[in-house]
Amino acid sequence: MTSAENMADDIVGQPEPNTLRGSDARSAAVDIPAGTVVLAATPIGNIGDASARLVALLERADIVAAEDTRRLYDLARRLGVYVSGRVVAYHDHNERSKADGLLDQVETGATVLVVSDAGMPTINDPGLAIVRRAIERGLPVTCAPGPSAVLDALALSGLPTDRFCYEGFLPRKHSERVQALRALLPERRTIVFYETPHRIADSMDDLLDAFGPNRAMALCRELTKDYEQIRRGTIGEIHQSVINDPPRGEMVLVIGGASSEEAEAAAPNSLSIEDLAVLAIDRALEDGLRIKDAIAQVVQEHPLPDGSLANRKQVYAAVLEIKG
Ligand code: SAM
Hints:
Keywords: Cytoplasm, Methyltransferase, rRNA processing, S-adenosyl-L-methionine, Transferase
Shape: elongated
Bound molecules: S-adenosylmethionine
Subcellular location: Cytoplasm
Largest sheet: 5 strands, parallel
EC number: 2.1.1.198
Family: Belongs to the methyltransferase superfamily. RsmI family.
């Protein structure tokens, strides 16, 4: 690391060591593993969720690799902790390039603490690169677990928790988001997404389109904070509530998994273009539709396994061929 980087990393603003009596007792009782990478979860809103291990690690780790050094010092100030180790910025843009340098320090016996701005490192936050490199280099890596919005929201949603999948943030682009949602239609497990206030209205529109109005869901916002709010209902109801009262702050969406009937109906398309053409011909006859409208319906109802849709022109060509 250059001295300029060092200076940039050493941001002022943490309390003096002699002001830190409050955390001493908690910190002293905790073992700090030498020569180890430690990932530690930080509060996602409520400072009271900081663990005794987090406090001890902040005070005594040799190096603290933090997603945002200002936020680290803010956390330390709120906890009344003096960060005695060297602080380095460790974020999405440099985590790969910095991992080996940090691990060299681990090799010499240093404790390297990895923290993100909030919640568990590696969960849509930096940390995975150093975990992977530590594994590759045979160096110890451990975790001081704690708050994470995924589990908090899942537990509060009231939806089944025995099997769930975490999908991170939905894609930003509408077409990719719709494709991702269609691919999840047959998912039987409870589904957890992270979402942002400026995309929630569009995402709810797409959820309604893809899943229909009747699936159960929960919109969980400002978890652990004073204004924590859980909106529970069907997708149709939550869609309307987002229009009536746009939610602000941080949020997580939890969607009920498909019933067996829904999963069967939405099972990935193993139908060929010719199968779709036959279905479209039948649909046009039964429902008195124009063939192009029948094709559009059939194609929409049978997405391919990756959530994309079969090419309507190819289905139309197959229809013409069948009809001779
Ligand atoms: N590593 C974090 C964790 O373990 O939860 C997640 C970091 S990710 C960059 C930030 C997203 O997590 C937010 O956009 C939001 O979707 C979710 N999130 C974090 N804190 C939250 C909170 N207090 N309430 C609701 N959602 C939260």
